[in-house]
Amino acid sequence: MESIIGKVIDGYRILDVLGRGGMGVVYKALDTSLDKVMALKMIDPMLARDENFLKRFKTEARALAKLENTNIVTVHALRETEFGVFMVMEYVEAKTLSDWIQQKGPFSWEDTVTISKQLLNAIGHAHRVGVIHRDIKPSNILLDTDLRVKVTDFGLAKVIRQHGPSSTVTQMRAGTLYYMSPEQVKGLKNVDFRSDIYSLGMTLYEMMVGKTPFEKTDSDFSIQKRIVEGEIPPPTKFNSSIPKPLAKIITKAIDKNPLKRYQSAEEMNQDIQVFEDSNSQVSIKKPSQLKLPSLKSVFLVFTILLVLTLSYILIMDPLEIFSEKETISTTKKPEPVLVSIMTEPDNATIVVNDSTVGQSPINQFKINAGSIALQLMKDGFQSIDTVLTVRAGQNVSYSFTLKQKSETVLVKNLGIVQIQSTPNEAGVWINNRFIGTTPREKEELRPGRYNLVVRKRGYAEYRDAFVVRTDQTTEINIKLEMLGKLNIYSQPAGADVLLDGNSIGSTPISEKELKQGSYRISIRKEGYEEYSTSVSVTGSSVNNVSKTLTPLTGSLKILIRPWGSVYVDGVLQKKDTNIQFETSLPVGLHKLKAQHPALGEWERQIKIEGNKTLEYVIDFNQTAMLTVTSEPNGCEIYIDGEASGKYTPKQLKLRIGKHVLSVQKSGYMLPGGEMQINIEEDVRDPLHFKLIKIQ
Ligand code: ATP
Ligand code: MG
Asked: How much is the pTM?
C-alpha cells in the first residue's frame, strides 16, 4: 500500500508511524488547524469495510470520548475520510509498559505502587461512568520517564471481539490471552468491571516478576485451561523479593472467582495505600518519590490545630507541615493533584464538581487541577458550599469543621419540601444557598416563595421557583435533561458556524454543550460553498460535525477574434486560439488578458461569482470611437508611441484593446504624462490632456 506519511488527511498531516496493533496502524500526526500533535488510530481497511463493525466502533468511540481523566488517553474525534476511518487521540510521548518491561525487566515495588495507583484511578473513573476496558494489558498502558501513566484503548476490545473468532484480526492479537480473565476466556457475555481488576492484577504480576506466569511455548489451550482453573502460582514463586502484602494484593486481584477479587478499583487502591503507608519509612529513602503523609498523622495534627482554632475553614498543606522530615525529597516531580478532605465530625457526604465522591474522610482523591466546586453535607449540620483552586503538582489536604444546624429554626409554622431528581445526586440550591444533593427528603422552610436551582454535571441546569405553605409538603420531582457535546470542525478552519440560525463562533468548536435534540448547523466561509446539515445531539456522547468545505467556483468563457492568446492572472491559458476557451475559476477577482501579436492587447479585471458564467468576445478587428481634447487645443496626438498627424480636438477610430495616448505641442509640456486606456466600445467622455506652458 502507498505510504501516507507526509500526506494531509482531513486536516491532519501524517508525520510518522507510532506502532501497529490489532485494529490497524497508529500514526503520529499534526492537527494543522490547531498546530498540535495527535495520535491517529487508522482502522484496518479490511475491518472498516464491515458496516456492522464500523457501527459498533463509532458507538464505542463516542462513549470513549466522554472519559476525562488524567490517566486516560483522551479520544478527540472520529473521522471518516476517503483514506479510511480513524480515531483522533491525545498523543502521549511515552513508551508502552510492555516495552519498559521488555527493556528493563521487573519494576521495584515503589514504582509498581506509583503506577498501579494511577491505573486504578483510570479504571475506577471509567467504571464509575459505566465503561469497562476489557483489554487491560501492558501494551495498552503508556508510561513516561516520570512514571506518569495513561491508559489507551478503553472498550475497543468489545468492538473487535464481537467481530467473530474467525477473523484474521482476532488471530493477530496474540499475547492478549495472558491478561484475559477466566470469564473472558470462557466467552461469557456478561463480563463486568471485575474482569478489568483481574487483567490489572495480571499486569502488576508481570511488572513485579518481569514476565507473565506463562511460557512462550505454552499452547493457547493450556493457557486458557490454567486461567479458567485458577492455576496461577503466586508472583513470589518467580521473585521472592516481592513484599508479601503486595503479592497478596496481586493474588487477590487475579482470583479466578470474581466474587473473591476486589469489588472495585477503590477497594484495591485502599489496600495498596495501606501497604504503601506502612512502608513509607522505606520509601522516604528514595529521593524521586514524594509522598503524602498517612491520613492518621494528618488527623493527629488536625486534632491539635482544632484545639488551637475555632476557625470555620482550615486549610493546610501537609507537604509543608512535614517538610522537615522529608527534606530528603529534593527533586519534586510533577504529580497529578491528590486532594484529601476531612471534616469534623466525619462521615459527611463529599460532592466534587457536582458528583458525589464519597464520605469524609477521603484520602488522596485524584482530581484535575483548577477550580473545583466542593460541597459537604451531613444531617443535622449546615452544608458547606465552596470553590477551591488547586494548582497542578500540588497535593493538598483540606479540613472543615461543620457547624451544627441551630435549633431555633425548629419553630412551628414551617412547611416541608421534598426534592427528587432523575437522576439523583444533583446539587440543590435554594435562594442561592446550597442545601445538599438530591434526594432531599425533608427540608423545613418558612412559608414563602423560593428560587430553586438544581445542577448535575452533564445535565442542563434546572431553574424554577416554588412556594412553601405552613404545615404542607411541597413535592418537587425534576427530570434532568442530559447534555450532549458537539464538536464542529471545518477544513479550512475559521468558518462561521450557525446553530439554528444563531452564530456560535468559528471553527474549530469543541465540546459545545447542548441539550439533546436536533439542530441545524450551517458552516460559512467566504469563497466556499455554505454547508448545512442536521445533527441530532444525544446525551452522554460527543457528536461530531466535520466538513471539508468546497471552494466556490464560477466559469469564464472567452473567444478571441481573429485569434489570440488567453492569460488569467498573468498565466498563459491557451496560445493563439480562435475557438472559445472555457475554464472554471475560484470566486473573486482575476486579471484576464487577450493578446494578438499584431493587433494589440486587451486587459481587464474580472469578478468571478459562484456558479455563474462570465462570457467575453474580443474582436481585435472591431473599432471604437474616442474623442481626444486638450488645453490648449491644437496638440498633435500620439497613438501607441507614434505620431498620428491628427490634432486635438479630434474623434479617433481605434482598434479595441489597450492603447497608450499622449499629445505634444511645442512650448508646452505634459505633466501627467501619457495615458493608458483600454477600449472596448465607443467611449462617451473625451480623453482630456492639460498642458503647461514652458517659460
Ligand atoms: P491492541 O490492538 O491489542 O490494542 P496494541 O496496543 O499493541 O494492540 P495499538 O493500540 O494499535 O496496538 O497501538 C500501537 C502502538 O502505537 C502502541 O504500542 C503505542 O506504542 C502506540 N500508541 C498507541 N496510542 C498512542 C498514543 N495515544 N500516543 C502515542 N503512542 C501511541
Ligand atoms: Mg492498544
From this structure: 0.47
